[in-house]
Design goal:
20 helices, MmgE_PrpD, 10 strands, MmgE_PrpD_N, four-stranded mixed sheet, MmgE/PrpD family protein, two-stranded antiparallel sheet, single chain, 498 residues, 2 domains, MmgE/PrpD_sf_1
Length: 498
């Protein structure tokens, strides 16, 4: 990896294009380096993972609405839409599929200076591959680039510190991945990256307070914008430049300001794109920082059944990282995180709620654990309201550590019982994490797909997709068109403008 220092330049400093971050990324995207076997295998895993969580959300209102928008834009050749038999214009197909993938907040994650779900790169790159007649090998190359660029940006540049939503890293990464897929020149990719970033910067209010259905739409919109940016760039249209480093650019006005400086490491020429191997998926349908807490709660509930009864518990304190405390914990100051009538999206971002339910139920389900009747159960509400979080500097340090053996997303729990005794325990990473108790492997991804598709897809459709997806690198362009799922009887989309 080669590290580049990125800062704001005055207009009269004339930063050469070749020294701009967008150009450096475009150079990575055009590098013809081979995709390693282990990266290829992980890409297959994540394609299966994406379609698994999308399948489970096919009947959910945000996904039904997005599918309706895509179906209102039929196109030939176009791209496939999960749950539909129509092919749509690629940007709309990517949008609908992106909403389906993100709706349950159940796919892969990478956390560092910023947060991300790098699997959000897959829907736009897949849609363009299907539309343009690319084969499975080309798709693998494009996805490898998308993951690499997003994760490299996430390691270096914090967006949330300035209340900018993390999808601002997704627009550029998806544009770069599409550029690799299509074999575009660096000049075209450079222009597309600039447009994609410029059009996908937004505030984090979409993940604050009463969280709305837009949470699932935000990354899908970024993928859609990336496709449109590539289209315009291919037509010779240009973009704001330098997009990150300009005097009125992203760093100067949205991030650390004119004096800000970031150290961004990118692969050197000929260096394999391996960043996907640093990411990790979810065993549970909840915000990633809650994954380890679910596993710890399940363990404690089994070992100490008395903890399930709020009458036995005086208080539960989760000592954890800055992010967990302030984003999904009591440090957020959001009363909605303790509201039994809150939306699923809000409960998904409430670690006090999640810990209470996992402690009582000993399991976690993507539907049942969020059901209104589950959230409103009196004993759960009583227990839930006894749970708070605090930031622990050591867990914050471990959260930001660059050492994989140290990096942690959990924390330490101290439970004070009404009889005066205390129970303490801790967990660093989720069981499914690569360094966890049960790291996810191919069979786990396949099992996750089968579990989420059960009762949604016909049995033969489940087997068809799994057989096809596991042959991804060797798929022909025609076969790649089958990398989707369909089932009869889905809800009819509501009417809108289209």
């Amino acid at each position: 990896m080669k590290t580049y220092s990125v800062r704001t330049y005055r207009s009269d400093e004339q930063l050469p294009r070749e020294q701009q971050l967008a150009w450096r990324i475009a150079e990575v995207a055009t590098d013809p380096v081979a995709v390693s076997p282990e990266v290829t295998e992980m890409i297959i895993n994540r394609v299966i993972d994406n379609v698994a969580v999308a399948t489970a959300s096919l009947s959910r209102p945000p996904v039904v609405a997005a599918r309706g928008q895509a179906e209102a834009h039929p196109y030939s050749p176009g791209a496939t839409v999960f749950g539909s038999q129509l092919r749509s214009s690629p940007e709309w197909a990517a949008f609908a599929n992106g909403v389906a993938v993100r709706e349950l907040d159940f796919h892969d994650t990478f956390l560092a200076a910023e947060y991300s779900h790098p699997g959000d790169n897959i829907p736009p790159i897949l849609a363009v591959a299907q539309h343009t007649g690319k084969d499975g090998a080309a798709l693998v190359r494009g996805i490898a680039t998308g993951y690499e660029i997003q994760i490299d940006l996430v390691k270096a540049i914090s967006l949330h510190a300035h209340k900018i939503d993390h999808v601002a890293h997704l627009g550029p990464s998806a544009a770069a991945g599409i550029g690799t897929l299509l074999g575009l020149p660096a000049e075209t990719i450079y222009q597309a990256i600039g447009q994609a970033l410029h059009t996908t910067t937004a505030t984090r209010q979409s993940r604050k307070g009463e969280i709305s259905t837009w949470k699932a739409y935000a990354p899908a919109f970024a993928g859609k914008m990336a496709i449109e940016a590539v289209d315009r760039a291919m037509r010779g249209q240009t973009s704001p430049s330098p997009i990150w480093e300009g005097e009125d650019g992203v760093i100067a006005w949205l991030l650390d300001g004119p004096s800000g400086r970031y150290e961004v490491a990118l692969p050197e020429a000929g260096e394999a794109k391996r960043a996907i191997l640093d990411s990790y998926t979810k065993e549970h349908s909840a915000e990633y920082q809650a994954q380890a807490w679910i596993d710890l709660a399940r363990k404690l509930g089994a070992q100490h059944p008395e903890l399930k009864d709020p009458a036995n518990v005086e208080k539960i304190v989760l000592a954890t990282s800055h992010h967990t405390h302030f984003v999904i914990g009591s440090g957020s100051g959001d009363p909605q995180k303790y509201d039994p009538t809150a939306s699923r999206e809000t409960l998904d971002h409430s670690v006090p709620y999640i810990f209470a339910v996992a402690l009582q139920d000993g399991t976690w389900h993507h539907v049942d654990s969020y059901a209104p009747e589950r959230a409103g159960r009196p004993d759960t509400v009583a227990l839930w309201h006894k749970i708070t979080t605090v930031e622990d500097p050591e867990w914050t340090r471990r959260y930001h550590s660059n050492d994989p053996a140290e990096k942690a997303f959990g924390g330490r729990v101290e439970i004070t019982l009404t009889n005066g005794t205390t129970i303490t325990d801790e967990i660093a990473v989720a069981d499914a994490h690569p360094l966890g108790a049960r790291p996810f492997a191919r069979e786990n991804y396949v099992a996750k797909f089968r579990s989420l598709a059960d009762g949604v897809l016909p049995a033969d459709e489940i087997e068809r997709f799994l057989a096809l997806a596991q042959r991804l690198p060797e798929l022909s362009a025609a076969e790649l068109g089958g990398l989707t799922v369909w089932t009869p009887g889905l809800p009819t989309p509501p009417r809108g403008l289209f």
